[in-house]
Amino acid sequence: MPIILLLILVATPASLLAQVNNGAGVSIATNSQYQQKAVLDGSGGAIIVWSDIRSGQHNIFAQRISASGVALWGALSGIPVCTVPGEQYTPDIVSDGAGGAIVTWRDDRMGADIYAQRLSPQGVPQWTVNGVPMCKAASEQREPVIASDGSGGAIVAWIDFRNSTYWRIFAQRISAAGDVQWSTDGVPLAAPNGHALGGHTIVSDGSGGAIVAWSDDRTGSTNVYAQRLSASGVPQWNLDGLEVCIAPSSQDAPRATPDDAGGTIVCWMDHRDGPSNIYAQRITGAGVTGWSSNGVAVLAASQLGGGAARIASNGSGGAIVVWNDLRNGAADIFAQQISSDGVPQWTANGVGMSTRDGTQFSPSITGDGVGGAIVAWVDELFATSYDIYVQRIDAKGSSLWGEWS
Asked: Which residues contact 331 (CB under 8 A, 6 or more apart)?
């Protein structure tokens, strides 16, 4: 039975969301479509990419949805991005700044490599059919993440096992024309001391480069490290990566957002004080941590549910963090705002965005441009199926869209 991907157009007015709150069809092709990612198209709509097994193997497909919820590419089947024999997984997507998008994915056509493709606003591939190789190094590369380079191209980071001893983080820049810009098969973000565990995240630095954060067990426990790469692919911080958090116990699943000043704010799951809390740290473009050593507590009540926290800029040098929370028994959605100087702004341990019966999980977040955020999540309200719900929260932590959202 086909799976219908549900899209919440976060730039769409609430009045329109009320009309399409059961979701707009992105693909209803045979077999399953999943691992979806979306990016705004600059015209009130979005471009979505996913892994698709309609042919019996995993391929990459994409769809564009207008601001009114109409599928623009390939009716309700989407368009192929990569259908070469072999398997393609875990796509990620970023805007190209011109109404189209750049997509990256893991590709097993000749091993486990990283490929990318640019799509025009009309859904026409702009580069080599079935994608341009970003990395074809020996052994395995996987879990690519992508950020804009600000010039119509992108920077992609992934975890890499080319030395067959431990995983490391590598990255590659690709131009708007589809030409790789850095060393063949990418540049490492940390010297050989790094032992990356995945869960990595990437954001643009606003100067043609990018900042990547990842979890790393080089010391025997899992901690969070980060690195900034210049537009030419040169590491800007410590050769082994910047220590974001090396507190006792373990820290993992980092997520990052730009701080609107050339740096980043990173949040992560933290186990120093209990099963699962959330901490955050601001890092300047020069690689200086701006808040307390090893971060400030966003959630310190050991109530974090499954999955990573998510983060978005508040437009004022701070951020809003959202997560699954078990303080009421079943999983709910909670959020907290952190100011530019690292001070929580709302109720201690966050405010509830959805605390009704049933289970709510897998939140995603985007800033709303006026100091608040729009959050979407999967909701098991009726105990028989999963639905997608959305809520907007303002800069004071108040929900704006009512119980139906």
From this structure: 305, 306, 324, 325, 359, 360, 361
